[in-house]
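Troubleshooting: if your tokenizer reports a length mismatch, compare your output against this known-good record of 117 residues.
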Amino acid sequence: MSDVSPAAGALDGARAAWDCLQSVALPAGWRRDLTENGFIQHDLRFYHGDDWMFSAVMNQGWVLWYSRRPAIRAGLVDPAAMLDAFPDARWKDKGEVKLRLSDESQAQAVWDWTMGR
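Known-good structure output:
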């Protein structure tokens, strides 16, 4: 996957969070794919094997991080622990946890928390 800069109009903090997640080192067996979705959104999808575990969706003011059901089922994310660790995180009725990342430090923190478990 080549680097893709966020669309014009994204705030600096959102750009920094995006750049962090776009370049973070992936463990063996993981890959990152980019899809485009709408005017300003880009969607980084993080896969372990064929399982789509996480998404990072670029918006104007933040990057929306999704811990998806496969990551929860695999034990990579305990929803209650994530909601505890990141008070701004929210449970979605689709069985996912979402979190707005407004800067690089938040992006790195969620990545480290997720992959360090």
